[in-house]
Amino acid sequence: MSNVAVAEPPKTKRPKTKTRQGLATKAQWRLLGLLIGLAVLALVLIASIAIGARAIPLGTTLDALFGGLRGRDAEIIRTLRIPRTLLGAEVGIALGVAGALMQALTRNPLADPGILGVTAGASAAVVTAIAFIGLSSLAGYVWFALAGAAVAMIVVYALANRGGGASPVRLALAGTAVTFALTAYVSGVALLDTATFDQFRFWAVGSLGAASYGTLSQVTPFLLVGVLLALALVRPLNAIALGEDASRALGARVELTRGVGTVAITLMCGAATAAVGPIAFVGLTVPHIARAITGPDQRWVLPYSLVISPALLLAADVAGRWLGSPGELQVGIVTPLIGAPLFIMLVRRRRIPQL
Predict the structure, then answer these.
(1) Hey, CA dihedral for 346, 348, 349, 355, is it positive or negative?
(2) How far out from the chain centre does Cα 327 lie?
(3) Residues 239-266: tens digit of each pLDDT
């Protein structure tokens, strides 16, 4: 037999290993960013407790929080500022996560909690309770706002589901139509009765000034269930981002995901709106900030939204107390002043991605 030289096979590269290393590095950077976001949130939480109409030194604030300090300042911190800060954080989380969930479900980057009629439904129920039942307590607003938000979502989903399924475009169109109709109803009822208008406008402006432990105990269970449901949908949401046909081919249950997502949005937005009134731009802006940092992966967008949104809302509340001193500007007035320029800057620096 003749000796035939056999060429050695060319050395192959290992792209998979490099890909894994790249993904690991990207995940580490995202985790580091999340930790930085948590540190910023902690600073904003302390600022929210320390800054108010009554000047309280930072050392006194920390002693009241961690050292068991007694006295007038400690009483103000424990009975007024802590529940206000906790409620602001919860409402911020609810609006931010609901906005991210809504944009992912509808694949509409301009969707926010107002576009599916949730906020308008809650407002319509509250103004109805004030005008026709004589309700005047925040405890009663919670249940009416939740019921109104749920009914509005059911109507929107039923309208969008007629004749071919609840596609993202149908949901957005049905939500916009219901929102305009309910907004007209709210304006009509409020303007026809001066007493109703006077009472409703204090709720509608969006304020954390009436926060209490009682309000926290009422809305926290709804917000907690809503956030947990939203976090449970991260994998189906990533599949839906590929399109309905592709997501079904991958085994995702699109209708079930949209149904559970709708329940989560109703719980979060209904409870948050009931507690403090309508607050704009948090649900719209925060998901864009999160996607600018993490990309479109919902496994990171939702956790980032969960951290950024309470920091943004509480920063707006602190700014309102500082700008309006010795009184205050309601947080519902300040969030558009901060959120709108931030959103415009994001739009100018980056093209709004198609979800």
Answers:
(1) positive
(2) 27
(3) 887 777 777 777 778 888 888 988 898 8
